[in-house]
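Researcher: Let's walk through a ligand-bound prediction step by step. First, I give you the protein sequence. Second, the SMILES string for zinc ion. Third, you return the three-dimensional complex as C-alpha coordinates. Ready?
Model: Ready.
Researcher: Here are steps one and two:
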Amino acid sequence: MKKLLILTLVAVLFLSACVKDASENDGNKGTLYYTIDVPTEAPTEAPADSTAVPTDSITETEPAPTETETVPPETTESTAPETEPVPVKVDGITLSIYEFWLNVGESHMPIVTMTPEDAPDKGEKWESSDKTVATVDKYGNITGVKGGDCTVTVTSTDNPDVYAEVKVHVKPEETEPESVTTVPAESEPAEKGEVTEPTYIGGILVVNKTYALPADYNPGVDPAAQDALYQMFADAAKEGISLWVKSGVRTYADQKWQYNVYVERDGKALADTYSARPGHSEHQSGLGFDLNSLSTSFGETAEGKWLAANCHKYGFIIRYPAGKENITGYMYEPWHVRYVGMDHAPVIHEKGLCLEEYLGITSQYND
Ligand SMILES: [Zn+2]
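Model: Step three, the predicted complex:
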Protein backbone atom coordinates (compact mmCIF):
# COMPACT_ATOMS: atom_id res chain seq x y z
CA MET A 1 0.00 0.00 0.00
CA LYS A 2 2.78 2.33 0.90
CA LYS A 3 4.50 1.38 -2.33
CA LEU A 4 1.43 2.25 -4.35
CA LEU A 5 1.11 5.59 -2.62
CA ILE A 6 4.71 6.43 -3.40
CA LEU A 7 4.29 5.40 -6.99
CA THR A 8 1.24 7.57 -7.37
CA LEU A 9 3.06 10.49 -5.80
CA VAL A 10 6.00 10.05 -8.16
CA ALA A 11 3.69 9.84 -11.11
CA VAL A 12 1.86 13.06 -10.13
CA LEU A 13 5.13 14.90 -9.61
CA PHE A 14 6.37 13.80 -12.99
CA LEU A 15 3.24 14.95 -14.73
CA SER A 16 3.23 18.34 -13.13
CA ALA A 17 6.87 18.80 -14.16
CA CYS A 18 5.93 18.13 -17.76
CA VAL A 19 3.19 20.72 -17.74
CA LYS A 20 5.53 23.32 -16.32
CA ASP A 21 8.08 22.73 -19.11
CA ALA A 22 5.59 23.08 -21.81
CA SER A 23 4.24 26.40 -20.57
CA GLU A 24 7.69 27.84 -20.11
CA ASN A 25 8.77 26.93 -23.62
CA ASP A 26 6.10 28.57 -25.52
CA GLY A 27 5.05 31.32 -23.28
CA ASN A 28 1.66 30.02 -23.85
CA LYS A 29 -0.57 28.91 -21.15
CA GLY A 30 -0.54 25.76 -22.96
CA THR A 31 -1.67 22.49 -21.76
CA LEU A 32 -0.60 19.03 -22.39
CA TYR A 33 -2.35 19.37 -25.68
CA TYR A 34 0.10 22.01 -26.72
CA THR A 35 0.98 20.09 -29.83
CA ILE A 36 -2.62 19.93 -30.76
CA ASP A 37 -2.59 23.67 -30.23
CA VAL A 38 -0.68 24.19 -33.51
CA PRO A 39 -3.76 25.24 -35.43
CA THR A 40 -4.07 28.21 -33.08
CA GLU A 41 -0.61 29.27 -34.20
CA ALA A 42 -1.82 29.81 -37.71
CA PRO A 43 -4.65 32.12 -36.73
CA THR A 44 -2.13 33.99 -34.58
CA GLU A 45 0.12 34.39 -37.58
CA ALA A 46 -2.68 35.33 -39.90
CA PRO A 47 -3.75 38.41 -38.00
CA ALA A 48 -0.08 39.33 -37.69
CA ASP A 49 0.20 39.12 -41.47
CA SER A 50 -2.72 41.32 -42.14
CA THR A 51 -1.36 44.05 -39.91
CA ALA A 52 2.28 43.57 -40.75
CA VAL A 53 1.76 43.78 -44.50
CA PRO A 54 -0.17 46.97 -45.14
CA THR A 55 0.69 46.78 -48.80
CA ASP A 56 -1.34 43.65 -48.93
CA SER A 57 -4.26 45.36 -47.39
CA ILE A 58 -3.93 48.18 -49.96
CA THR A 59 -3.98 45.71 -52.77
CA GLU A 60 -6.85 44.13 -51.06
CA THR A 61 -8.66 47.40 -50.67
CA GLU A 62 -8.14 48.26 -54.31
CA PRO A 63 -10.16 45.37 -55.60
CA ALA A 64 -12.74 46.41 -53.13
CA PRO A 65 -13.43 49.79 -54.78
CA THR A 66 -13.52 48.00 -58.10
CA GLU A 67 -16.20 45.91 -56.66
CA THR A 68 -17.94 49.00 -55.46
CA GLU A 69 -17.42 50.47 -58.89
CA THR A 70 -19.00 47.54 -60.56
CA VAL A 71 -21.92 48.02 -58.32
CA PRO A 72 -22.83 51.56 -59.37
CA PRO A 73 -22.85 50.64 -63.08
CA GLU A 74 -25.33 48.02 -62.20
CA THR A 75 -27.34 50.63 -60.43
CA THR A 76 -26.99 52.94 -63.42
CA GLU A 77 -27.98 50.17 -65.70
CA SER A 78 -30.98 49.45 -63.68
CA THR A 79 -31.91 53.14 -63.70
CA ALA A 80 -30.88 53.59 -67.34
CA PRO A 81 -34.08 52.29 -68.87
CA GLU A 82 -35.99 54.94 -66.96
CA THR A 83 -33.60 57.84 -67.68
CA GLU A 84 -32.68 56.96 -71.26
CA PRO A 85 -34.98 59.47 -72.99
CA VAL A 86 -33.49 62.31 -70.90
CA PRO A 87 -29.77 62.03 -71.87
CA VAL A 88 -30.42 62.80 -75.57
CA LYS A 89 -28.36 65.95 -75.70
CA VAL A 90 -27.43 68.18 -78.58
CA ASP A 91 -24.07 66.95 -79.92
CA GLY A 92 -23.61 68.98 -83.08
CA ILE A 93 -24.52 72.23 -84.81
CA THR A 94 -24.27 72.97 -88.50
CA LEU A 95 -25.00 76.27 -90.22
CA SER A 96 -26.28 77.10 -93.68
CA ILE A 97 -23.36 79.50 -94.06
CA TYR A 98 -20.04 79.99 -92.27
CA GLU A 99 -18.90 83.23 -93.81
CA PHE A 100 -20.75 86.07 -95.44
CA TRP A 101 -20.66 89.74 -96.27
CA LEU A 102 -23.15 92.36 -95.19
CA ASN A 103 -23.70 96.00 -95.90
CA VAL A 104 -24.27 98.34 -92.98
CA GLY A 105 -27.89 98.01 -91.91
CA GLU A 106 -28.33 94.77 -93.83
CA SER A 107 -29.34 91.56 -92.00
CA HIS A 108 -28.90 87.87 -92.56
CA MET A 109 -29.95 84.88 -90.51
CA PRO A 110 -27.99 81.64 -90.97
CA ILE A 111 -30.09 78.49 -90.70
CA VAL A 112 -29.11 76.30 -87.75
CA THR A 113 -29.38 72.53 -87.67
CA MET A 114 -28.82 70.77 -84.36
CA THR A 115 -28.22 67.06 -84.01
CA PRO A 116 -29.45 64.56 -83.01
CA GLU A 117 -32.82 65.33 -84.43
CA ASP A 118 -34.64 64.01 -81.37
CA ALA A 119 -32.73 66.20 -78.91
CA PRO A 120 -35.56 67.75 -76.91
CA ASP A 121 -33.79 71.02 -76.13
CA LYS A 122 -32.52 72.76 -79.23
CA GLY A 123 -32.22 76.18 -77.66
CA GLU A 124 -29.77 78.59 -79.29
CA LYS A 125 -27.66 81.27 -77.68
CA TRP A 126 -26.23 83.83 -80.09
CA GLU A 127 -23.26 86.10 -79.47
CA SER A 128 -21.28 88.55 -81.54
CA SER A 129 -17.56 88.95 -80.90
CA ASP A 130 -17.87 92.64 -81.76
CA LYS A 131 -21.26 94.29 -81.44
CA THR A 132 -19.90 97.49 -82.93
CA VAL A 133 -19.39 95.61 -86.22
CA ALA A 134 -22.44 93.34 -86.26
CA THR A 135 -25.19 92.61 -83.77
CA VAL A 136 -27.15 89.40 -83.45
CA ASP A 137 -30.56 88.87 -81.89
CA LYS A 138 -31.81 85.79 -80.07
CA TYR A 139 -33.07 84.29 -83.32
CA GLY A 140 -29.71 84.58 -85.06
CA ASN A 141 -30.53 87.62 -87.14
CA ILE A 142 -27.16 89.24 -87.82
CA THR A 143 -27.12 92.92 -88.72
CA GLY A 144 -24.16 94.95 -90.02
CA VAL A 145 -23.39 98.01 -87.89
CA LYS A 146 -20.13 99.35 -89.31
CA GLY A 147 -17.34 98.21 -91.59
CA GLY A 148 -15.16 95.42 -90.16
CA ASP A 149 -15.01 91.73 -89.35
CA CYS A 150 -16.35 89.77 -86.43
CA THR A 151 -17.38 86.27 -85.46
CA VAL A 152 -20.88 85.33 -84.45
CA THR A 153 -21.22 82.21 -82.34
CA VAL A 154 -24.28 80.08 -81.75
CA THR A 155 -24.13 77.80 -78.73
CA SER A 156 -26.49 75.03 -77.69
CA THR A 157 -28.23 76.01 -74.45
CA ASP A 158 -28.61 72.30 -73.79
CA ASN A 159 -24.92 71.53 -74.21
CA PRO A 160 -22.64 74.59 -74.00
CA ASP A 161 -19.71 72.53 -75.36
CA VAL A 162 -21.42 72.47 -78.72
CA TYR A 163 -21.24 75.61 -80.83
CA ALA A 164 -20.70 76.88 -84.37
CA GLU A 165 -19.15 80.06 -85.66
CA VAL A 166 -19.85 82.23 -88.65
CA LYS A 167 -17.46 84.88 -89.92
CA VAL A 168 -19.19 88.13 -90.70
CA HIS A 169 -17.64 90.82 -92.87
CA VAL A 170 -19.41 94.14 -92.88
CA LYS A 171 -18.64 96.26 -95.88
CA PRO A 172 -17.70 99.80 -94.94
CA GLU A 173 -20.28 102.24 -96.23
CA GLU A 174 -17.79 103.88 -98.57
CA THR A 175 -16.86 100.56 -100.23
CA GLU A 176 -18.63 101.35 -103.48
CA PRO A 177 -16.59 104.45 -104.29
CA GLU A 178 -13.55 102.37 -103.35
CA SER A 179 -14.23 99.63 -105.83
CA VAL A 180 -15.08 102.26 -108.41
CA THR A 181 -11.55 103.61 -108.04
CA THR A 182 -10.27 100.33 -109.46
CA VAL A 183 -12.59 100.79 -112.38
CA PRO A 184 -11.23 103.94 -114.05
CA ALA A 185 -7.75 102.48 -114.25
CA GLU A 186 -8.94 99.35 -116.01
CA SER A 187 -11.98 100.85 -117.62
CA GLU A 188 -10.21 103.20 -119.91
CA PRO A 189 -10.71 100.83 -122.85
CA ALA A 190 -14.39 101.78 -122.56
CA GLU A 191 -13.71 104.72 -124.80
CA LYS A 192 -15.04 105.07 -128.30
CA GLY A 193 -11.99 103.66 -129.99
CA GLU A 194 -11.51 100.01 -130.69
CA VAL A 195 -11.40 97.69 -127.71
CA THR A 196 -8.20 95.71 -127.69
CA GLU A 197 -8.33 93.90 -124.34
CA PRO A 198 -11.07 92.31 -122.27
CA THR A 199 -11.70 94.08 -118.95
CA TYR A 200 -11.20 92.27 -115.65
CA ILE A 201 -12.44 93.86 -112.43
CA GLY A 202 -11.76 92.10 -109.16
CA GLY A 203 -10.70 89.06 -111.18
CA ILE A 204 -14.03 88.95 -113.01
CA LEU A 205 -14.25 89.40 -116.75
CA VAL A 206 -16.75 92.19 -117.25
CA VAL A 207 -18.91 92.47 -120.31
CA ASN A 208 -21.78 94.94 -120.24
CA LYS A 209 -22.83 98.20 -121.90
CA THR A 210 -19.83 100.03 -120.47
CA TYR A 211 -17.27 97.32 -121.08
CA ALA A 212 -16.90 95.65 -124.44
CA LEU A 213 -14.85 92.72 -125.66
CA PRO A 214 -12.45 93.04 -128.59
CA ALA A 215 -14.09 92.04 -131.84
CA ASP A 216 -11.64 89.16 -132.26
CA TYR A 217 -12.06 87.84 -128.72
CA ASN A 218 -13.43 84.36 -129.21
CA PRO A 219 -12.26 81.89 -126.53
CA GLY A 220 -15.18 79.49 -126.92
CA VAL A 221 -17.02 78.02 -123.94
CA ASP A 222 -15.04 78.45 -120.74
CA PRO A 223 -14.08 74.92 -119.57
CA ALA A 224 -14.70 75.63 -115.87
CA ALA A 225 -18.06 77.16 -116.68
CA GLN A 226 -18.99 74.18 -118.80
CA ASP A 227 -18.06 71.68 -116.09
CA ALA A 228 -20.04 73.65 -113.52
CA LEU A 229 -22.97 73.88 -115.89
CA TYR A 230 -23.09 70.14 -116.45
CA GLN A 231 -22.73 69.43 -112.76
CA MET A 232 -25.63 71.76 -112.11
CA PHE A 233 -27.71 70.06 -114.80
CA ALA A 234 -26.95 66.65 -113.29
CA ASP A 235 -27.87 67.73 -109.77
CA ALA A 236 -31.04 69.43 -111.00
CA ALA A 237 -32.03 66.26 -112.84
CA LYS A 238 -31.82 64.32 -109.57
CA GLU A 239 -34.53 66.61 -108.29
CA GLY A 240 -36.65 66.20 -111.38
CA ILE A 241 -35.56 69.57 -112.81
CA SER A 242 -34.66 69.54 -116.46
CA LEU A 243 -32.24 72.25 -117.61
CA TRP A 244 -30.52 72.66 -120.94
CA VAL A 245 -28.58 75.22 -122.94
CA LYS A 246 -30.75 77.13 -125.34
CA SER A 247 -27.98 79.45 -126.44
CA GLY A 248 -24.31 79.39 -125.50
CA VAL A 249 -21.39 81.05 -127.19
CA ARG A 250 -22.04 83.70 -129.77
CA THR A 251 -19.21 85.27 -131.71
CA TYR A 252 -18.87 88.98 -132.33
CA ALA A 253 -20.16 88.41 -135.87
CA ASP A 254 -23.15 86.37 -134.65
CA GLN A 255 -24.06 89.08 -132.22
CA LYS A 256 -23.68 91.80 -134.82
CA TRP A 257 -26.05 90.02 -137.14
CA GLN A 258 -28.60 89.33 -134.38
CA TYR A 259 -28.48 92.83 -132.91
CA ASN A 260 -29.02 94.36 -136.34
CA VAL A 261 -32.06 92.16 -136.92
CA TYR A 262 -33.55 93.42 -133.65
CA VAL A 263 -32.73 97.06 -134.45
CA GLU A 264 -34.46 96.77 -137.78
CA ARG A 265 -37.49 95.20 -136.16
CA ASP A 266 -37.84 97.24 -132.92
CA GLY A 267 -35.57 100.25 -133.32
CA LYS A 268 -32.26 100.84 -131.57
CA ALA A 269 -33.66 102.12 -128.25
CA LEU A 270 -35.84 99.11 -127.65
CA ALA A 271 -33.34 96.61 -129.04
CA ASP A 272 -30.76 97.95 -126.57
CA THR A 273 -32.97 96.86 -123.65
CA TYR A 274 -32.81 93.18 -124.55
CA SER A 275 -30.02 92.61 -127.02
CA ALA A 276 -26.38 93.54 -126.64
CA ARG A 277 -24.49 95.46 -129.24
CA PRO A 278 -21.67 93.50 -130.84
CA GLY A 279 -18.75 93.23 -128.41
CA HIS A 280 -21.05 93.85 -125.43
CA SER A 281 -22.63 90.41 -125.19
CA GLU A 282 -21.67 87.99 -122.45
CA HIS A 283 -22.29 85.20 -124.91
CA GLN A 284 -19.07 86.19 -126.64
CA SER A 285 -17.13 85.60 -123.42
CA GLY A 286 -17.96 81.89 -123.20
CA LEU A 287 -19.21 82.51 -119.65
CA GLY A 288 -22.86 83.36 -120.33
CA PHE A 289 -25.61 80.88 -121.20
CA ASP A 290 -29.28 81.07 -121.97
CA LEU A 291 -31.13 78.10 -120.53
CA ASN A 292 -34.43 76.48 -121.46
CA SER A 293 -36.68 79.32 -122.55
CA LEU A 294 -36.16 82.96 -123.45
CA SER A 295 -39.37 84.03 -121.78
CA THR A 296 -39.91 86.07 -118.62
CA SER A 297 -42.40 83.44 -117.49
CA PHE A 298 -39.50 80.97 -117.24
CA GLY A 299 -38.78 82.58 -113.86
CA GLU A 300 -42.11 81.27 -112.58
CA THR A 301 -41.56 77.67 -113.66
CA ALA A 302 -40.12 75.02 -111.36
CA GLU A 303 -36.97 75.07 -113.49
CA GLY A 304 -36.64 78.84 -113.33
CA LYS A 305 -37.15 78.88 -109.57
CA TRP A 306 -34.68 76.06 -109.03
CA LEU A 307 -32.11 77.88 -111.16
CA ALA A 308 -32.52 81.14 -109.24
CA ALA A 309 -32.24 79.36 -105.90
CA ASN A 310 -29.35 77.04 -106.73
CA CYS A 311 -27.16 78.33 -109.55
CA HIS A 312 -24.85 80.19 -107.13
CA LYS A 313 -23.83 76.81 -105.69
CA TYR A 314 -22.18 76.12 -109.04
CA GLY A 315 -20.58 79.51 -109.52
CA PHE A 316 -23.38 81.07 -111.58
CA ILE A 317 -25.53 84.14 -111.11
CA ILE A 318 -28.77 85.21 -112.72
CA ARG A 319 -27.05 87.99 -114.60
CA TYR A 320 -30.02 90.30 -115.18
CA PRO A 321 -32.29 90.07 -112.14
CA ALA A 322 -35.73 91.59 -111.80
CA GLY A 323 -35.67 95.04 -110.24
CA LYS A 324 -32.09 95.77 -111.32
CA GLU A 325 -32.90 96.79 -114.89
CA ASN A 326 -31.61 100.33 -114.38
CA ILE A 327 -28.29 99.03 -113.11
CA THR A 328 -27.60 96.15 -115.48
CA GLY A 329 -29.09 98.03 -118.41
CA TYR A 330 -31.13 94.98 -119.38
CA MET A 331 -34.60 93.67 -118.76
CA TYR A 332 -35.12 90.77 -116.39
CA GLU A 333 -33.72 87.58 -117.94
CA PRO A 334 -34.42 84.60 -115.67
CA TRP A 335 -32.83 82.29 -118.22
CA HIS A 336 -29.43 83.99 -118.62
CA VAL A 337 -26.79 82.69 -116.23
CA ARG A 338 -23.26 83.98 -116.00
CA TYR A 339 -20.35 82.02 -114.57
CA VAL A 340 -18.36 84.11 -112.06
CA GLY A 341 -16.94 81.22 -110.01
CA MET A 342 -17.37 80.03 -106.47
CA ASP A 343 -15.45 82.94 -104.95
CA HIS A 344 -18.14 85.36 -106.03
CA ALA A 345 -21.43 83.69 -106.96
CA PRO A 346 -22.49 82.68 -103.41
CA VAL A 347 -21.68 86.18 -102.11
CA ILE A 348 -23.53 87.94 -104.91
CA HIS A 349 -26.50 85.65 -104.36
CA GLU A 350 -26.39 86.07 -100.59
CA LYS A 351 -26.39 89.83 -100.84
CA GLY A 352 -29.02 89.98 -103.55
CA LEU A 353 -26.84 92.09 -105.80
CA CYS A 354 -26.38 92.25 -109.52
CA LEU A 355 -22.83 92.10 -110.89
CA GLU A 356 -22.65 95.87 -111.42
CA GLU A 357 -23.57 96.53 -107.79
CA TYR A 358 -21.16 93.89 -106.57
CA LEU A 359 -18.27 95.44 -108.48
CA GLY A 360 -19.44 99.03 -108.10
CA ILE A 361 -19.50 99.66 -111.85
CA THR A 362 -21.89 101.05 -114.43
CA SER A 363 -23.49 99.55 -117.50
CA GLN A 364 -24.11 102.33 -120.01
CA TYR A 365 -23.29 102.84 -123.65
CA ASN A 366 -21.18 105.86 -124.37
CA ASP A 367 -23.64 107.24 -126.90
ZN1 LIG B 1 -28.25 85.54 -122.77
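Researcher: And what stands out?
Model: The mean pLDDT is 78. The chain has three domains: 2-83, 92-171, 190-359.
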